[in-house]
Amino acid sequence: MFDAEALIIALTVFVLAIFIGYEVITKVPPTLHTPLMSGSNAISGIVIVGALLVAGQADGIAGQILGAIAVGLAMVNVVGGFMVTDRMLKMFRKSGDKR
Amino acid sequence: MNTEALFHLNITNAAYIVAAILFIVGLKQLGSPATARNGNRMSALAMLVAVVATVVGNDIASWEFIIGGAIVGSAIGAFSARKVAMTSMPQLVAIFNGFGGAASAAIAAAELIRLIDDGSHIAEDVSITIMASVIVGGVTLTGSFIAFGKLQGIVPTRPILLPIRNVINVALLIGMIASTVWLVIDPSLTAFMIAGAIALALGILVVIPIGGADMPVVIALLNSYSGIAGAATGFVLGNTVLIIAGSLVGASGLILTRIMTKAMNRSLANVMLGGFGVEDGAASAGGEDERPVTSIQPEDAAMMLAYAQSVIFVPGYGLAVAQAQHQVRELADLLKEKGISVRYAIHPVAGRMPGHMNVLLAEANVPYDELKDLDEINGEFQRTDVAVVIGANDVTNPSARTDKSSPIYGMPILNVDAAQSVIMMKRGMSSGFAGVQNELFFLDKTQMLFGDAKDSVEKITAEVKDL
Fold it and tell me: Best residue in A5, A19, A31, A44 to probe B by mutation, most B CBs within 10 Å?
C-alpha cells in the first residue's frame, strides 16, 4: 500500500512505463505480432509476484485458497506464455538459413 | 521492522529494477526476428528474478498452497504450450489472457479479505485500486472466455445482439460505480462481490455482439486489459515491478488494437458496438450475383504459374482452415527452383489474430523475409505476373478503394487487381465476412479455382512437376 507521496511516485512509474512500452513495441514488425502477444501474455503473468505475496501472507483459509488459485493461474501464463513464444520464435528463419 | 528485514526489502527492490530493465530490453529485442528468441528468454529471466526476489524478500508464512498452485499452473501451461496447434494460437492467447485477468481479481479478493480481517481503516486509494483490479480482471476473464468460445466455434461466431443491451450495459456501469462507492465508504466483501459479478457479466456482454472476423481486435484489447489488470494489482499491493510489467503489456495490447482497427478502417467504438456485417450480409444474400466468372482447373493454373516470372501468394484465414500452408510452401519451392520470384503478401488482419498468418507460414518453413506487409508489397503487384489468392477475400476487394457505398470502403486492401492475372482459390462463390461481393471475382484477368485449397495446391504442384 502507498501513502500519498508514494502514490504519486507509483503513478509516475505507471505513466513512464506506458510511454516506454509504446516506444519499444511500436517498432515490433507485423511478422512478430503473434509472438509479441503471447510473449506479453507471459509478462502479464507478473501478477505471480502479487499472488505469492497474498498467498504467503494470508491468515485465513479463504485468503490462502484465493492466493493458491492466483498463483496457479499466473503460472499458467508465465510457463505457457514463455514456452509457446519460444516454440513459435524457433520457427522463424531467414531465406538460406538451414534448419 | 528490523534492519535485516529492511535489508531484504532493499535487495528485493533492487532486483525488481533489474527485472524491469530485463523486461524492457527483452521486449526491445522482440523487434527483430533475429534477436526475438533471445528477447523472450530475457523476459523469462526477468520473471525469474522478480519471483525469486519476492520469495526471498518477504516472509512467506505458508508454502503448501503456493507450491500446489505453482505445480498445477506450470503443468497446465507447459502442456498447452507444447500441444497447441499454430492454427489455434488465438484461442490459446485468449484463454491465457482470461487466466491473467482472473489471477488479478483473485489477488484483489485475497488482499481485501486480509485488510478486512486486520480491522484497520482501509484508505480510499486502496479500495479504489482493489475495485479497479477486480473489475478489469473480471471483464478480462469472461470476455476472453467468450472470445475463446467464438474462435473455437463453441459460441456462435456471428454477432449476438441482445435487444436492450445498451440499457443493460448502462445499468451494469451504474451498479459498478455504486458498488465502488460502497466499498470506499464501508469496506465489505458484499460490495466487492457485487462488483465482481457485474464485471463478469459485462465481459460477456461486451464480447458477445462482436463478430468472428473482429476477434483480432478483441484479443489484442483483452491482451491490453490483462496487462492493465496487472498494473492495477501493482497499485493495490504497492509493488512497482507489477506496475511496470503490467503497463508494458497494456501498451502492447493497445498498439496492436490500433493497428488492427486501422487495417479494417474502423474505429474501436465501431468494433465494440458490434453487429458489423449483420445487416449487410442479409442484404447481399437477397440479391444473388448473376454475373459470369471464369473458372479454371488446376492444370491451367499450373501452366500459368510455371510460365510466370513473378508470383505473389495472398494467404488468408481460409488457408489456415484448409491447413494448406505446407502445400503452398512446397509449390513455392518448386516455382523458385524454376527461377520464378515468389513472395507472400500478408494483410494485417489476415488470420484470427495479429501476425497469425506469419506464424502459420513460419511453421511451414517459409522464410520471414519472403513475407511482405501491405506497404511493402502493394507497389509490386503491377509488376507481378500471377497473384494467387488462397482463402482471402475482403482484404482483396477493390470496392474498398472505389465504391463509397460499400461497407468496407476505405479499408486498406492488397492491390491484387493490379497483377497481370489473378488465380482465386475458393470453395464457392460466397462473399466474405463483411457480406460484400468481391469485385475481383468478375475481372477479366481473374480465374476462379474452386475447391479445397489444400487439394487444389497439391494438384497444381503435381502438374508443375510434370511440366
Answer: A44
